[in-house]
TrEMBL record:
Residues 10-190 form the Glycosyltransferase subfamily 4-like N-terminal domain. This is D-inositol 3-phosphate glycosyltransferase. The lineage of its organism: Bacteria, Bacillati, Actinomycetota, Actinomycetes, Micrococcales. Transmembrane segments: none annotated. PANTHER family: SULFOQUINOVOSYL TRANSFERASE SQD2. It comes from the Bacteria. It comes from Subtercola vilae. Keywords: Glycosyltransferase, Transferase. InterPro entries: Glyco_trans_1, Glyco_trans_4-like_N, Glycosyltransferase_grp1. Residues 394-413 are annotated as: Disordered. Residues 199-353 form the Glycosyl transferase family domain. It holds the Pfam family Glyco_transf_4.
Length: 413
């Protein structure tokens, strides 16, 4: 697996790569990850995620200082490093998560060796443009160059995927590729805890990177518009380059008592934040899926989200939340107020809808789908995937010892 961003980075692509790698390892695969080093220390060693050992090849990297944490592998050595790693590992398949540097090198090396290649796109130019330091007049040209580079790298793949159909249509439109498969990033819903007890306060939650495309300023303005009697509190979980700007905005608007910035938190603290919240807010305009929104739904939260990119795939207006016009703080505030004023029974109906809708994004289904692609499949065969998952469930149940009440011998009639 190749990734330009991987744990300890905190973003959707890194989280997906980690979960897929550990999930594949749990199913018995020997998983290797190629990614930039998270510090000056580089080399190959074992890292453990979700209790699974993964071999990680950390490439020498450098900080990209316009960004608050991003590191990049040396592009002038990526072909040499990719050749070396593939000759050593001799993989059955290569799955890259980004075309920018690591995916480019691995796809070239894999193509030369006849190794099956899967490419997954998590990239939108809006996610990086603000960190390029390019003047506005050059940005349109830069976007065109980025998509041409994506076409070259993804064009080497045997199968190209992206998390949603909206994202697949987007990728095909800007690269000219065809046949891009929509495969959810998936989520292990059992890791999250819904809470149906009566609310203690009105808690609004945002989780994500504190960057421009997330449009957190729109959410802050919406919170400022909420009636005072709601006593609504906004928790913003995550870090990023705009943190100080947003803290200043909150101070200028004199709503410091309503908004808290937690920065990065542990996985346990994050899950507790989801459980404690009343509603999840996602104002972003550049989500190819939004793992944070999926985590919120798995925690039984209604969602108020921008009607942009892939968010409508998760948020069904009037069922598990509402979609608002991107950038429209007043409309977002109205929808947040509607949910926060719901009687408990009606709020619970929204919460149950989120839990029901997230079932289609089961992580094990995602892992089995990619396994089939690694082995040679070129499509998403739902019937075959269902059959395999059902067979595994039956096998797991069959391997459990029989028990009978009272501790009697189950082999005795």
């Amino acid at each position: 697996m190749g990734a330009d961003t991987f744990t300890p980075n905190v973003n959707g692509s890194a989280r997906f790569s980690e979960r897929l790698a550990s999930g594949l390892a749990a199913r018995g695969h020997d998983v290797h990850v190629v990614a930039p080093a998270a510090s000056r220390r580089h080399g190959t060693w074992t890292e453990t995620y979700d209790g699974q050992d993964i071999t990680v090849h950390r490439l020498r990297s450098f900080r990209w200082y316009p960004h608050d944490w991003l590191r990049w592998a040396e592009p002038w050595f990526i072909n040499k490093n990719s050749d070396r790693i593939l000759d050593d590992v001799k993989p059955d398949a290569v799955h890259f998560q980004s075309h920018i540097i690591v995916g480019r090198g691995l796809s070239i090396a894999a193509k030369k060796r006849g190794v099956r290649i899967i490419g997954t796109n998590h990239f939108m130019p809006e996610n990086l443009l603000e960190f390029t330091l390019l003047p506005k007049s050059w940005q349109v040209r830069a976007v065109g160059m980025a998509w041409r580079a994506a076409k070259r790298t993804f064009g080497r793949a045997d199968v190209v995927t992206t998390p949603t159909q909206k994202a697949a249509d987007f990728l095909e439109k800007y690269t000219g590729l065809s046949g891009v498969l929509a495969i959810s990033c998936g989520i292990d819903a059992e890791n999250y805890t819904p809470d149906f007890t009566p609310r203690e306060g009105n808690h609004i939650l945002f989780v994500g990177r504190i960057t421009g495309e997330k449009q957190i300023d729109v959410l802050i303005k919406a919170v400022a518009l909420l009636p005072a009697d709601l006593n609504a509190k906004l928790d913003i979980v995550g870090g990023g380059d705009l943190l100080k700007n947003l803290e200043h905005q909150v101070k200028v608007m004199d709503i410091e008592d309503r908004v808290s910035f937690t920065g990065y938190v542990t996985e346990e603290e994050l899950r507790a934040s989801y459980t404690r919240a009343t509603v999840f807010a996602m104002p972003s305009i550049a989500e190819l899926q939004s793992i944070a929104t999926m985590e919120a739904m798995a925690s039984g939260l209604p969602v108020v989200a921008a009607n942009a990119m892939a968010l409508p795939h998760l948020v069904k207006d009037g069922r598990n939340g509402f979609l608002f016009e991107p950038g429209n703080s007043q409309q977002m505030a109205d929808q947040l107020e509607f949910i926060l004023r719901l009687p408990q029974e009606e709020l619970d109906a929204f919460k149950k809808q989120s839990l029901e809708l997230i079932e289609a994004h089961d992580l094990q289904r995602t892992i089995v789908t990619f396994e089939r692609l690694y082995r040679g499949a070129s499509d998403v065969d739902d019937a075959a995937i269902d059959a395999e998952l059902n067979a595994e469930t039956r096998a797991a149940l069959g391997s459990q010892p029989d028990t009978v009440p009272g501790g009697a011998d189950p082999s005795h009639p």
